[in-house]
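Q: How would the structure tokens look for this protein?
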Amino acid sequence: MLYYLNSLSDVVGGFNVFRYISFRTGGALLTSLLLFIIFGRGMINWMREKQGKGQPIRDDGPARHIVEKAGTPTMGGALILGAIAISTLLWARLDTGFVLMVLFTMLGFGAIGFWDDFLKVSKRNTKGASGKLRLLAGFAIALIAGIWANLMTPDPLQSQLLFPFSKDFMVDLGVLFFPFAIIVIVGAANSVNLTDGLDGLAIVPVMIAGLSFAIIAYCTGNFNAAEYLHLQYLPGTGEIAVFVGALTGAGLGFLWFNAPPAMVFMGDTGSLALGGALGAIAVATKHEIVLAIIGGLFVVETLSVIIQVASFKWTGKRVFRMAPIHHHFEQKGWHEPTIVIRFWIIAVILALIGLSTLKLR
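A: Here is the predicted structure in token form.
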């Protein structure tokens, strides 16, 4: 909305800054951060009052969680999503459509997560909504997002799967693009959800991945940058950087309250929504494979669960002491801050590897 203030630049020269994505990305970041600072503590106190005993803690999880994390309110993701949505609508240029597609995906998965969190808190158990129902709703949202992205992508690239480290090598998926988009978006949503098991563990890697994709989105949406880096030019994707700015500001605000010991959990409301948003950004920018590199930490967390379940089902033995893998290291005696910070370091390394694909073509 503020983008259109640049039309006043003929009268007041300073208003021309509103046309620049970089300026509006910074504005979105500061706005969402300020919203969290102003309203965060009050909303958390209100959640604590309404939820009473807070988020139910799994009996089959690490024993110390039952003692240390009991009573912590959940659904903090609603604060994140609110700050992101307000900041994005305020600072982004909405006529390109890609930002609205990502915002729709985030809010859609946020609604799924909110319903799941609500059932957990109201019924005082850790089961929440039906897994099948969650998946079906996620598939529907991801399909709409995939169709939306497809319609906005230039015709030669609509159903193409692009490969990193190569400018011209691509595979035309045809109608298979839509199930592929569903797998990417739903997979990203659930991977972040699995990672969200320790204070601060998920939100920082989400911000790192988001900032990496802000660079990718800006480059693919800028003709000169795309040409220089030998990327496929995708008009309009640059505005996604503004959305990521809002996400980063909200993430920093949330981390202030989620740093160990957490005052609030994001819950499925936040983890499903943020993961879905990352998947939608990857589909919009045609960098789905790069998401698997940049978000490699989320991939490893998911694989640890798959391996654990498969091994126990087929052999009766567990590969890890507990899954997802961050709980394995807890069981080995690692302290929670040690696990979290080391996983953050891994996320930074993977992001740098993923970003290197922009130049190595």
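The chain has a mean pLDDT of 90.

The radius of gyration is 20 Å.

Upvote if useful.
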